[in-house]
Please model this.
Amino acid sequence: MPKLIKRCLPVLVGAGAVALGALIAAAWVRTQENGGAMTRAVLEALPDSGVSNPVTAVLLNFRGFDTLLEVAVLMLTLIAVWALDLRLPRTEALPPSPVFSSLLRFSGPLLVVIAGYLLWVGASEPGGAFQAGAVLAGGCLLLRLAGRWNPGARFVRWAVSVGLLVFLLTAIAMPVLTGGLLQYPPASAGMWILLIETAATVSIAAILAALFVAREPEGPRR
Amino acid sequence: MIEWWVDALVGLMMLWLAWQALTSADLLRAVAMFVTFGLLVAIAWIRLGAPDVAIAEAAIGAGLTGALLLITIRRMEDQRNSGSLEKRRAKAD
Model:
């Protein structure tokens, strides 16, 4: 039987890929029939969202709940990897080299500045927490590969969870302030979005970098 | 006019790189193909007018996933040298 499964597998994978392609095509056709009604709805509500980039407005304001769950899923992924307990050897640091350390001296600070820029510019231009977090995670990995950074367990845990914590606290505070779940007061919406995105950037960077290390930080469990 | 053949070239190269990444016997080569594929996908997103997705694809799809795949290859080699997961757990306990 395994031989038969092996022979059928490529056909099944191919059929699955074709079905997925058909689904995406159908979804695209449906949005075309819609005549861009969603696009118009987003652009009409944009002035109340606190930001001028429609993508950020959808991600952090109109569909903020989805993004909250996304941050939660990312954190759960990392917890699952930690729970697997792979007992990986500490081999990720590269042997010291002058080329790598001078590259690091240039690119380390530059990556932090780029991440900060992407976070800030996300309000009006393409950018945002996920992009900024990914760039920051790249910087963390470079430091890690150079063997220059070994943050403590408490720091890692706070960094990994601060994004979800701030997001959840906002979600709890909003029904009191405005009466709606994740519905920011229009006057200060931009500030709330920036607050959530800053915390999310730190967490996304920490989670992506911790996935690379793939080992629970040693330290006090509380 | 120029746009048309640039798009066609990016599309064809994406297909070729995806095929190379999937069928290459050398894992290191497959990862290099995958990272290049990710960068071309980012270009494709820009051409489709979605720069937000393009930045995310370049940073996460090409950069971090590539790094994760590379460290996985290295750890697979380490594991081949130092024994299986069960052995490592037994040694550490």
